[in-house]
Write a structure and sequence with these properties.
single chain; 8-stranded mixed β-sheet; 17% strand
Length: 480
């Protein structure tokens, strides 16, 4: 699953949970201001919480274990994908196209309001400033302006109209509507988002109606003036205030509804944390599932013989470079192990960023000794220290699984591969330049490993002195 789809999945889940709580518990309550805060918080929370990773709050980054013999590094933590878009990518493209279309529609609506604004003129009635329009629109407020065609309404209705719309201006209800429209742009495919936008519009009208009635306006005459506004509702399809018969029936019902008791406030206290925890639990569960699919064994060393069959057919091979020159596996097999100075493994994004797309399966870097270094190595070596075979193993996916450097008598090996057993106590490990002793080495999450370098022979002695006589394993971790 692509990061975009995972983000959308988490955000939509949060919106669904918040709306389900609102519809089941809160929509019939008369705490309109609290409902407004709840609905706006639902949008903000759904937009930002997928960026948080709560699973990291409960886990610790372990240190690296050591038991000499096998360096366990699984290098294919992310499988190599086939070329061409898969289902997830096609879904991402489709969602992106929808976002563009709905974004254009929102811009068109805003342009429509701008047209009304520039075609209207400043005016005032009593203490209320407004924009006088000659178009057949129902009264509506947007941002800090009230738009009205006075010719369409009798004078005795003006007080109710202006009190209603002025409350919209004071409370910045246009912000609620804009947020609902933006959520619809990005999550247009989710039916709950459309219902959420409808609820936001309804709730701000409930708030406004309640404030108008509390100002002393007669209830029946106010409701009658709202019914009169239906005559012009079809001509105003902008993101201002909408009027239709079903909407007004609901508003009139809420005006006549008995006030909710204070005991109902407990629903908010229980509901908001429950929805947030439910969303976070999903995130933690999803993260654990992802880690289970890509979890890699830790770092250890073993003296067990190397499996005989260490090569398999591959679709995408790792990039192999000897002394800065690209080469193939056949040439590597023919390389005299005595001339090898060091072997490095680079995986994940680091390989692709440095060597391009052809390094998607990882990179094996081999450095050979110079003539001067070969001349210095005149002292005899023990049989167990003579490298007779370099074996590069690969998986079917094409990512590098490991590098085996085997001794002449097959009795021991330094193996970078995917399992662990055995122990040789004299290994020297350096992690990001810091020496790690045996007692400090514990299980490491291989996802943080960027590269592994194996140094042996004279090169290890030159760099690390006497402590490098048995070879040195250098591990570089990814930067946070």
């Amino acid at each position: 699953m692509t990061p975009l789809l995972l983000y959308l999945l988490k955000a939509n889940l949060a919106l669904i949970l918040f709306y389900a709580g609102y519809y089941g518990w809160l929509r019939k309550l008369t705490f309109y201001s609290l409902n407004r805060c709840y609905l706006l918080f639902a949008i903000v929370f759904a937009a930002v919480f997928p960026f948080f990773h709560p699973e990291k709050w409960f886990t610790q980054t372990p240190d690296i274990p050591v038991s000499l013999g096998t360096v366990l590094v699984e290098l294919n933590s992310s499988p190599v994908r086939n070329s061409g878009p898969d289902l997830s990518q096609w879904l991402s493209y489709g969602i992106g196209c929808g976002i563009i279309c709905f974004g254009i529609l929102l811009i068109i609506k805003l342009i429509g309001i701008g047209r009304i604004h520039f075609n209207s003129v400043p005016s005032s009635w009593s203490v209320y400033p407004f924009r006088k329009s000659d178009e057949g629109i129902s009264p509506f407020a947007f941002w800090k302006n009230i738009y009205l065609n006075p010719a369409l309404h009798p004078t005795h209705e003006f007080e109710k109209i202006f009190k209603h719309e002025y409350i919209h201006v004071q409370k910045l209800h246009s912000l609620d509507i804009l947020m609902a429209e933006l959520v619809r742009v990005f999550f247009w495919y989710n039916p709950v988002v459309w219902l959420l936008g409808k609820s936001i519009r309804e709730n701000i009208e409930f708030m406004t109606d309640d404030a108008v009635l509390n100002s002393g306006i007669d209830r029946k005459s106010y409701q009658y003036s709202l019914l009169q506004s239906i005559r012009f509702s079809q001509s105003n399809t902008l993101i201002g205030n909408h009027f239709n018969l079903n909407n007004l029936k609901t508003r009139i019902m809420m005006m006549n509804k008995q006030r909710s008791s204070g005991r109902q406030l407990g629903k908010y206290v229980l509901l908001v944390p429950a929805v947030m925890i439910g969303s976070l639990i999903f995130t933690i569960t999803k993260a654990n599932d992802t880690q289970a699919e890509t979890k890699i064994t830790a770092v250890s060393i073993t003296t067990s013989p190397i499996p005989a069959d260490t090569t398999k057919p591959v679709k995408v091979q790792p990039l192999m470079i000897v002394d800065g020159v690209k080469t193939d596996k056949k040439s590597i097999d023919q390389l005299d192990p005595e001339v090898i100075k060091s072997v490095s493994v680079i995986k994940d994004k680091s390989a692709v960023e440095t060597y391009g797309a052809e390094a998607a399966g990882g990179v094996i870097l081999i450095t050979t000794k110079s003539k001067e270094e070969m001349a210095k190595e005149i002292k005899p070596v023990k049989k167990s220290e003579t490298v007779s075979k370099v074996n590069i193993r690969e998986k079917e996916e094409g990512a590098i699984s490991g590098i085996n450097i085997q001794s002449a008598n097959d009795s021991s090996a330094i193996t970078i591969r995917g399992h662990k057993n055995g122990e040789i106590p004299d290994a020297v490990f350096y992690v990001n330049g810091e020496k790690y002793e045996k007692e400090k080495m514990k299980q490491l999450n291989p996802n943080v490993i960027r590269s592994v370098t194996v140094l042996k022979g004279q090169h290890a002695l030159d760099k690390y002195g006497e402590e490098g006589k048995n070879g040195v394993i250098e591990i570089n971790l990814k930067e946070d």
